Amino acid sequence: MPNIQNRLCGNLPKIGIRPIIDGRRKGIRESLEEQTMRMAKSTAALITKKLRHPNGLPVECVIADTTIGGVAEAARCADKFAQEGVGVSLSVTPCWCYGMETIDMDPLIPKAIWGFNGTERPGAVYLSAALA
């Protein structure tokens, strides 16, 4: 690969990956933790491998430290993304979630949701709820 340098002014924006999960405990959340984080890590790997900035450098991803099943975790994720220079937010989920507790509320960052519809707790329902 050729030697690519950032000739643009300022830092390049990163993509923030938000692993969203059903926050209910007693076996529900616990059964989805690994699958949800694996989905976030796979998404970040795909983006880093396939997407490039206009100058040719690969797009960097930042993944939340934990899955997001409630307001406190969403707030910690927002703080991390602000510190890391995240400019785009992508929420990923394989399951149903509480939309108002987990959605990205930053009005200044473009966002997307990938809700995988392959389980009995479809993530596509989260996408529809977030859009409502």
Explain how this protein is built.
- This protein is α/β, with parallel strands linked by helices.
- It has one domain (14-119): Rossmann fold (3-Layer(aba) Sandwich).
- It is built from 4 helices and 4 strands; from the N terminus they run βαβαβαβα.
- The protein has helices spanning 28-50, 71-84, 99-102, 123-131, and strands spanning 14-19, 61-63, 86-93, 111-115.
- The chain has a 4-stranded parallel beta sheet with strand order 2-1-3-4, with helices on both faces.
- Helix 1 (28-50) links the parallel strand 1 (14-19) and strand 2.
- InterPro entries: Fucose_iso_dom1_sf (IPR038391), Fucose_iso_N1 (IPR012888), Fucose_isomerase (IPR005763), Fucose_isomerase_N/cen_sf (IPR009015).
- Residues 13-132 form the L-fucose isomerase N-terminal-1 domain.
Structural class: alpha/beta
Q: Helix amount, in percent?
A: 25-40%
Rg over alpha carbons? 15 Å
The shape is: elongated
The CATH topology: Rossmann fold
Question: Would you tell me the overall average pLDDT?
Answer: 85
Number of domains: 1
Spatial arrangement of strands, main beta sheet? 2-1-3-4
Query: Helix count, per DSSP?
Result: 4
- Return the CATH architecture: 3-Layer(aba) Sandwich
Question: Mind describing the biggest β-sheet?
Answer: 4 strands, parallel
Low-confidence segments, ≥5 residues, pLDDT <50?
none
Beta percentage is 15-25%
Instruction: Tell me the number of strands.
Output: 4
Rounded to the nearest angstrom, the distance between the terminal CA atoms is 44 Å
Elements, N to C (H/E): EHEHEHEH
CATH class designation: Alpha Beta
GO biological process, one term: L-fucose catabolic process
GO molecular function: arabinose isomerase activity; L-fucose isomerase activity; manganese ion binding
InterPro entries: Fucose_iso_dom1_sf, Fucose_iso_N1, Fucose_isomerase, Fucose_isomerase_N/cen_sf
Domain L-fucose isomerase N-terminal-1: 13-132
